[in-house]
Structure formats: structure tokens, C-alpha cells
């Protein structure tokens, strides 16, 4: 039997040298820690479509496909799971203000320097952000 891995998308939205993070809550996974706006790719959905949906649901930002670019793929093992993660990068559109779209899943949005992340960023997410900031396009975590 061939292995299959769940796939997730992550939004790395930048405002200059700052990146948008969200504090998780109520999900049962790493609640209280910082992550990126993210989510699973649903059956029948492309990675880009999933990213745009998650951006809208979690940050209220209505981004278009031409405003985002795939920046990094991460094959990672963390917390007992193995994932293929797609990190998309985008600049905050002029005049846009992100807001918490799912208050039952996030308690806070905050901007942090992309090259000096807060200590409580989930380690696998930190690894991906740091690789992206270094200009890498592929990385592995937890192997």
C-alpha cells in the first residue's frame, strides 16, 4: 500500500518585514501557541483555492490567486503526524486590515518580525517560516 499524507496550506502574509501570526484556541491542537493562518486542503480543492478560502475564513482577507505565490513546500513530521505543507506568501494589500474570522479557533492576530519570531510559535511552523525567510523553496522537518 502506498503512503498518503494529509496536505495543508499556510498563509505567510507580510507587511514589510513583519509576518501575520494567529494565536490558536479551542482546536485541541497547540492551543495558546502562535501559528499562521492555515488549514487542510479539502477533497476536490486545489492548494491555491484552499489557501484563498482559509485566508478569507481566518483573517477576513479576500485575496485573489494572483496576489499569492507558492513560496515553500515542507515535508514534516510533528506531534505524531506527517504532512505535506504548502506555504504561500503574499503582501498585505494596500488598505486591507486582517481580522479574526473564526474567534472560536483564534484568540489573537499579531504582527511579528519575520526574522525574529516570538518564542511561542509552533516549532514546525517556525521551521517553515525561517526556511521561507532564508529563501528556501523546500524543507524537511522532524525526520
**Global outline:** globular
Total of domains: 1
The Cα radius of gyration reads: 14 Å
Give the low-pLDDT segments.
Answer: none
**How confident overall, as mean pLDDT?**
96
- Element order, helices and strands? EEEEHEEEHE
The CATH topology name reads: Nucleoside Triphosphate Pyrophosphohydrolase
Number of strands: 8
Structural write-up:
17% of the residues lie in helices and 38% in strands. The protein has 143 residues and is an alpha+beta fold. It has a single domain (7-141), classed as Alpha-Beta Complex (Nucleoside Triphosphate Pyrophosphohydrolase), CATH 3.90.79. Strands 1, 2, 3, 4, 5, 6, 7 and 8 form an eight-stranded mixed β-sheet that branches. A hairpin with a 2-residue loop joins strand 1 (7-15) and strand 2 (18-24). It starts with 6 loop residues before the first strand and ends with a strand.
Amino acid at each position: 500500500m502506498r503512503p498518503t499524507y494529509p496536505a495543508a496550506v499556510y498563509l505567510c502574509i507580510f507587511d514589510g518585514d513583519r509576518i501575520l501570526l494567529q494565536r490558536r484556541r479551542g482546536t485541541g491542537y497547540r492551543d495558546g501557541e502562535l501559528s499562521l493562518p492555515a488549514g487542510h486542503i479539502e477533497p476536490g480543492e486545489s492548494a491555491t483555492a484552499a489557501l484563498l478560502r482559509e485566508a478569507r475564513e481566518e483573517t477576513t482577507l479576500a485575496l485573489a490567486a494572483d496576489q499569492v505565490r507558492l513560496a515553500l513546500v515542507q515535508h514534516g513530521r510533528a506531534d505524531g503526524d506527517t504532512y505535506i505543507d504548502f506555504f504561500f506568501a503574499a503582501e498585505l494589500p494596500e488598505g486591507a486590515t486582517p481580522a479574526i474570522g473564526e474567534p472560536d479557533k483564534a484568540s489573537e492576530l499579531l504582527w511579528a518580525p519575520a526574522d525574529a519570531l516570538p518564542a511561542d510559535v509552533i516549532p514546525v511552523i517556525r521551521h517553515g517560516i525561517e526556511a521561507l525567510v532564508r529563501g528556501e523553496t523546500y524543507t524537511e522537518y522532524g525526520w
